[in-house]
Specification:
With about 500 residues, the chain is an alpha+beta fold. The protein has 13 helices and 17 strands. Strands 1, 8, 9, 10, 11, 12, 13, 14, 15, 16 and 17 form an 11-stranded mixed beta sheet that branches. Helix 9 links the parallel strand 14 and strand 15. Helix 1 crosses helix 5, helix 11 runs antiparallel to helix 12 and helix 12 packs antiparallel against helix 13.
């Protein structure tokens, strides 16, 4: 791990953190019960997360990764360290023809005590296909699922899908018991994972956006977890998360701000590469950025290296594209965007720039971007909210520009997946409101492409088509920074950010 000397700005922040210590002590006291023994370790884990549930812990939206990171939900498959599909609830699979795959289930049980059966799995996948908006893992994909014998599920897609096993690893395609989809699951399309999932930890209580209590699920097919449970706190303030690790009030804190990294002892600081990119999404459908020439003006105004140095303090790389250095094959295959509009003079065009503060570096990024855009001639109003209070307005196109941090391989592990969900006419997470025929054709061609290398080439051609519209301006490619107590072992620093706590995580 590279150790960076503290800057003057960081030392000043450190003094500020010291002043906050009395205010934070006790904020993370565990409400859960103490272990009654019987487990490999028995001690509960205290975890500070950056994002509270935005959609009542439904797996069909932003909360899907929260559930997988806490070890609550699973899909038929998972992703291994190389991004390939690995067994999860399915122990094996085979492709029967261009459009049909058969998955063989392992013996497992849901947290409500019922068995994971082919009928239950097929029903869960069918529910996901009916959710609106569609889960991002299913962007542009039509599939059906049916039970096949005592241990098989047959999944058929409307068009050939070479990466279906990777797609089914998406957190939004978690398998829940039939009970999850009943009346207690809320409105149609919003199942509840409380007591209905299959992971090593079971949600027993959610206290709004403040905290959640999880207990170990003792019948987990993958073996008994070391920790007897998890007491999770949703703490949007990055300084508070870092301070809680430093004072010993939590065992694990995710998303430590780069500015706070120097306040932690080196032994508690963990870094890892991530496929997450911070980008500036420009509203192509309404407002000033409907004009490609003004989008080009915004792109040329951005100084990405200045953001990496000034805000991320070196814990990031300058924005190169939708896919960054952690996608190891991307740079050698990158295609130069063509057909970009010539930048126009903004002439004081008024725009609203929005971001969220759950990732503490984003408001700082937004302030720098605001200054850069103003210098270029835009009039910029900045709006910062918590993500759960911002997402619906962002998806509805109520802002002219939006700064967010997106893991490009989060939803499917397939590079084409994020392009379809984020930048096509029917994409379910299209913050730029982009609807471009050339882009849709390029993404559709990538979807149809088989073979790993060929699919990567097609993905990079589609990336070039998207960047050519200036709907998105890549700002920085981030690194994971987590705070972990020296007493904790087995934290999972996943580049896809789908996992954090597993069966081996313990203190």
């Amino acid at each position: 791990m590279q150790v960076r000397p503290p800057s003057i700005k960081s030392r000043l922040r450190f003094l500020t953190v010291l002043a906050l210590v009395p205010c934070l002590t006790g904020c993370f006291a565990s409400p859960g019960r103490e272990s009654s023994g019987g487990g490999p370790s028995g001690q509960r884990l205290r975890v500070a997360l950056a994002f509270p549930p935005a959609e009542n812990v439904s797996p069909y939206g932003a909360d899907a990764t929260l559930l997988s990171r806490l070890g609550v939900t699973e899909g038929l498959t998972a992703l291994d360290a190389n991004g390939a599909a690995a067994p999860a609830l399915a122990r094996s699979w085979r492709r029967e023809d261009d459009r049909t795959w058969r998955f063989t289930l392992r013996e497992a049980a849901f947290q409500d005590g019922t068995d994971v059966t082919p009928a239950a799995v097929a029903a869960a996948l069918t529910h996901a296909t009916k959710a609106r908006p569609a889960p991002t893992a299913l962007a542009g994909v039509t599939l059906s699922a049916e039970p096949d014998g005592d241990s098989g599920v047959r999944v058929t897609t409307a068009a050939p899908d070479a990466v279906l096993p990777m797609r089914l690893a998406g957190p939004s395609l978690a398998i829940l018991s039939p009970k999850a989809y009943g009346k207690k699951g809320g409105h149609p399309g919003a199942p509840t994972p409380v007591g209905t999932a299959t992971g090593p930890f079971e949600i027993t209580k959610v206290n709004g956006g403040g905290s959640a209590t999880l207990d170990r699920y003792d019948d987990y097919w993958g073996g008994l977890a070391h920790a007897s449970g998890i007491d999770a706190r949703f703490v949007k303030d990055g300084t508070a998360r870092a301070n809680a690790v430093r004072t010993g009030d939590v065992d694990i804190a995710e998303a430590i701000p780069a500015a706070q990294a120097t306040t932690l002892d080196e032994s508690t600081l963990r870094e890892a590469g991530t496929t997450r990119t911070t980008g500036l999404q420009l509203n192509t459908r309404n407002g000033p950025f409907k004009d490609p020439a003004l989008r080009a003006a915004a792109r040329t105004a951005i100084d990405s290296p200045a953001l990496v140095t000034g805000v991320f303090e070196g814990y990031a790389d300058p924005g190169a594209g939708i896919f960054g250095p952690a996608v190891t094959w991307a740079e050698s295959k990158r295609v130069k965007p063509a057909g970009r509009a010539k930048a126009a003079r903004p002439g004081g065009a008024s725009i609203t720039l929005a971001t969220y503060d759950n990732r503490p570096e984003l408001p700082e990024v937004a302030q720098v971007v605001q200054q850069q855009l103003r210098k270029a001639g835009f009039t910029v109003k900045l709006e910062v909210r918590e993500y759960s209070r911002l997402e619906s307005d962002a998806l509805a196109g109520k802002f002219d520009a939006f700064i967010g941090a997106r893991n490009s391989l989060l939803d499917t592990g397939d590079p084409v997946g994020v392009l379809g969900s984020d930048y096509t006419c029917d994409g379910g997470y299209n913050l730029a409101r982009l609807c471009d025929k050339k882009v849709d054709r390029a993404v559709a061609e990538a979807v149809r492409t088989d073979g790993t290398g060929e699919r990567q080439d097609a993905a990079m051609a589609a990336e070039a088509a998207i960047l050519g519209t200036d709907a998105v301006v890549p700002l920085a490619h981030q690194q994971i920074i987590a705070g972990v107590s020296t007493q904790v072992r087995g934290v999972v620093l996943d580049p896809y950010e789908r996992a954090l706590v597993g069966t081996g995580t313990r203190r």
